[in-house]
Amino acid sequence: MKLRYSVLFLVAVMIITFPGTMKAETMEDSDTIVTIVRAPEQTQAERPPCFPDPADNFIQLPDKENIAEGKPVQASEHNDVYVSSNLNDGIVQTYWESKGFPAVLTIDLEGVHIVSTAAFCLNPSAIWEPRTQEIAVLVSTDGENFAEAAAAAVYQFDAATGNRVRIDFDPVEAAYVRVVITSNSSSNSKGAQIAEICIY
Ligand SMILES: [Ca+2]
C-alpha cells in the first residue's frame, strides 16, 4: 500500500510540475485528421449568380471616347467648394454645384466633332437621394451662335440606375456644347448639380 501511494504521489507531482509533457503524450495518442483545402485560383473579385450586380441596372453610356473630359469649361458661379473644374475631371465623386438658376456651362471641344449624345452623371452612391433636373443641350461651331440639340426637359437622376442621364439627339457638328439647367428637385442643393458631363 505504501508503494502504491508513493507511485500515485509521484504521478501527481509530474502532472503538476510538467503539465505540457503529459498533455503532449495525450495528444500523440489521439488520431488527428487534417483536411487541406486549397484556395481557388482567383485573380479578381467574383460575384455569385444569386447576388445581382447593381451596375446591371445602370443607364449605359456609349462605348466610345468621351470628348468632353479634360476640355476647357466655363460655368455659372459655383456654390461653396463645388467648382466647375469638377465637371469633367473624370471623377464621378467630384461635382459642380451652381449658385441658383439658370445654371449654364459651356464645354470647348477644341475642334469640330460630330456629336449625338450628352450624358450627365452624379455620384452613384445611394446616399444621393433621387432628384430631377431640367436640362437643355445646345451646340455651336463658333462659340457664339448656338442651336438647340435637345430641348429643355426634366430628367430623373436615381442611384438605382447609376445616377445617370443620357440624352441622345440627331448627329450634329459641334465645337462647343452648352448646357442650361433650370431646376433641381433636391432639397439639399443650392442649384444645378453635375459630377461629370460626357459628350459623345
Ligand atoms: Ca467630376
CATH topology of the domain at 64-199: Jelly Rolls
Name the CATH superfamily assignment of the domain at 64-199: Galactose-binding domain-like
CATH architecture of the domain at 64-199: Sandwich
* N- and C-termini, Cα separation: 101 Å
Gross geometry? elongated
Q: What is the alpha-carbon Rg in Å?
A: 33 Å
The CATH class of the domain at 64-199 is identified as: Mainly Beta
| Distinct small-molecule ligands in the complex | calcium ion
| Total helical segments | 2
Portion in beta strands:
35-45%
What structural class do helix, strand and pairing data support?
mainly beta
> Strand-and-helix sequence, N→C?
HHEEEEEEEE
Tally of strands: 8
What would you say this structure looks like, in words?
This protein has a domain at 64-199: Jelly Rolls. The protein contains two helices and eight strands, in the order ααββββββββ. It has helices at 2-17, 19-29; strands at residues 73-75, 96-97, 103-121, 131-140, 147-157, 164-184, 193-194, 196-199. Strands 1, 3, 4, 5, 6 and 8 form a six-stranded antiparallel sheet that branches. Strands 2-7 form a two-stranded antiparallel sheet. Calcium ion binds next to loops. Residues 86, 89, 91-92, 94-95, 195-196 line the site of calcium ion.
